[in-house]
Specification:
282 residues, alpha/beta, 9 strands, 40% helix, globular
Length: 282
């Protein structure tokens, strides 16, 4: 395993590997690694000779300083986890100064409206921060393929759009959501939940599954109304939004069309921790 904290040194190392015709995968993370991350790393290892895992808590994608301050960090544990997976992993752990210098600010992107709904509506500037850091890592690593989880499905679509608009020649790979045994989507934020709440949070996935079963026979509006009522009856969770949208454009559904794929998106607060999830409906 190799560990780098400087872009210049990482770029030089990777160029030597490419000169040996070795392919490179990239898995960007914010650390606090769990099995969801590891599933991305393992897929990347299957499809590439080497895999770069970046660990960087990106300040420009947090709209609330408190959320940034509370984000779980355990670099030593993350490195131990990655060592157990493979020696072919290269860990990139830059400082904020290495990435941003003295100007901690996002670039501005036009994402063709993908950033205006759901997460974009509730987290101002979030996707500009995501685009900035992902573009930085893509340009630094120049991977053959980069891997992102579908739990952040809106983010995945925005990264694909950013790569298209910036004409970045890297393949963006979406990977299925990994779930805890009771259905809660794996997330670093889950560590901040109390044990009872974490167990009860299966309610989120169960609600999505029921929404999927209703999608074949009920209108989208009726399903959205039903979801809101279910959360109003559950005092443990506060629903921020539930939306059914076109999977490709993220446009909220008006009327179901046979040739389109739809996905349900949800954001919920539990123990003051914000959780997101999504599920394909058809």
């Amino acid at each position: 395993m190799h560990l780098f904290d400087r872009k210049k040194e990482l770029i030089s190392f990777l160029q030597e590997e490419r000169d040996k015709n070795r392919t490179v995968g990239l898995v960007p993370t914010m650390g606090a690694l769990h099995q969801g991350h590891i599933s991305l790393v393992k897929k990347a290892l299957l499809e590439n000779d080497l895999v770069v895992v970046s660990i960087f808590v990106n300040p420009t994608q947090f709209d609330k300083k408190d959320d940034l301050d509370k984000y779980p960090r355990n670099l030593n544990q993350d490195i131990r986890i990655l060592k157990d997976v493979s020696e072919k992993i290269i860990v990139f752990v830059p400082s904020v100064d290495e990435i941003y210098g003295s100007n901690i600010a996002s670039k501005h992107y036009e994402f063709d409206g993908l950033d205006k709904v759901m997460e974009g509506e509730f987290r101002e500037g979030h996707f500009n921060g995501v685009g900035t850091i992902v573009e930085t890592f893509l340009r630094t690593v120049s991977p053959n393929k980069a891997y992102f989880g579908e739990k952040d499905f809106q983010q995945l679509q925005i990264i694909r759009k950013m790569a298209e608009l910036r004409k970045l020649p890297f393949q963006i790979i979406g990977c299925p959501i990994e779930r805890e045994p009771h259905g809660l989507a794996m997330s670093s934020r889950n560590e901040r939940l109390s044990k009872p709440t974490r167990k009860e949070a299966s309610f989120i996935y169960e609600t999505l599954q029921t929404a999927k079963s209703k999608f074949g026979t009920e209108s989208a509006q009726d399903i959205m109304d039903w979801v809101k009522e279910e959360f109003q009856k559950n005092p443990l969770f506060t629903l921020e939004y539930f939306q059914i949208a076109d999977e490709d454009t993220l446009t909220p559904i008006l009327k179901k069309q046979e040739n389109k794929k739809y996905r349900a998106f949800i954001a919920v607060y539990a123990d003051d921790v914000r959780l997101i999830d999504n599920l394909r409906l058809n």
